[in-house]
Amino acid sequence: MKRPTLEAVAARAGVSRATVSRVVNGQSTVGPEIRDVVMRAVRELGYVPNSAARSLVTQRTDSIALVVSEPPTRVFSDDPMFSTVIRSASVELEAADKQVVLMLSGTAQSHARVERYIASGHVDGVMLISMHGADPLPAAITRMGVPAVSYGRPAVPVALPYVDNDNVGGAEKAVKHLLDRGRRRIATIAGPQDMIGGQDRLTGYRTALRDSDRRSIVAVGDFTRESGAIAMRQLLEDDPQLDAVFIANDLMAIGAIQALRHAGRTVPDDVAIVGFDDIEAARYTDPPLTTVRHPIIEQAAAMVQLLLSLLEGDENAASPVILPTELVVRESA
């Protein structure tokens, strides 16, 4: 069978081809009665708009790039943050009848490829995830004039709307909880210091300790389970008497608990542990992990809604969105 054309739909509906084109392209200049007639003809004939022709008319592709500034080994690892953000953003975009284009940009070559793809007009907007301090993409995309938002405050000074969670306040809650439990030597395993999440959670830790007589004891990981174990062993060597650790994400906390067990320390009797994120695995560690809930699903959904507002020309959409965090107390502290 031949594919139904705009002309066939127009003949069935008794309207002009231009009217059918305005209806299927979502323009608001057609009255509701005429729109209903046209859509009935579309359904009866099984008409499917030609996406290439439609893009020429609307100047839109209905595709959104989801750019993750990490290598595949990191994105497709045991860190559930990436899969949760990708899944949540995809669900929100699907509800808005948009297509997701997942792009990884963990190397200089992939940065260049992503820039070329976006500059060529293949997508209507861009969402950036897991950016590092030296990442050139935020500035490049801003220069292109393509609507873009960031999952988290950008690490570089660039005019890019973003959605973040209260990293500083969440870390303060975690450390104050340990202080309230009478812990004296409170260390931290911070996240990467070229990422805003790592920087802000370290700031929150130091802020909470500032008014107490405790000193800062800091090791740095890279948000992976292995780095948490390595950093925990380093902390035990540096200060064998430490009795609490705030850890900048749950995966590193899980690695730290394993390192403490191998060192003959019990949690929480010898060392109390508080993580950050509240991933599903936090409920099933031994003991279950006290942590700060980072609203990952809500943050991803808010990021999509912010971008959709930008695409519709909402001038207020440039304001950052900061979501609250919540301390979830379990047995590890």
UniProtKB/TrEMBL annotation:
Pfam families: LacI (PF00356), Peripla_BP_3 (PF13377). GO terms for molecular function: DNA-binding transcription factor activity; transcription cis-regulatory region binding. Residues 5-33 form the HTH cro/C1-type domain. Gene3D superfamilies: 3.40.50.2300, lambda repressor-like DNA-binding domains. The keyword Chaperone does not apply. It comes from the Bacteria. Keywords: DNA-binding, Transcription, Transcription regulation. Residues 4-58 form the HTH lacI-type domain. Transmembrane segments: none annotated. This is LacI family transcriptional regulator. It comes from Acrocarpospora corrugata.
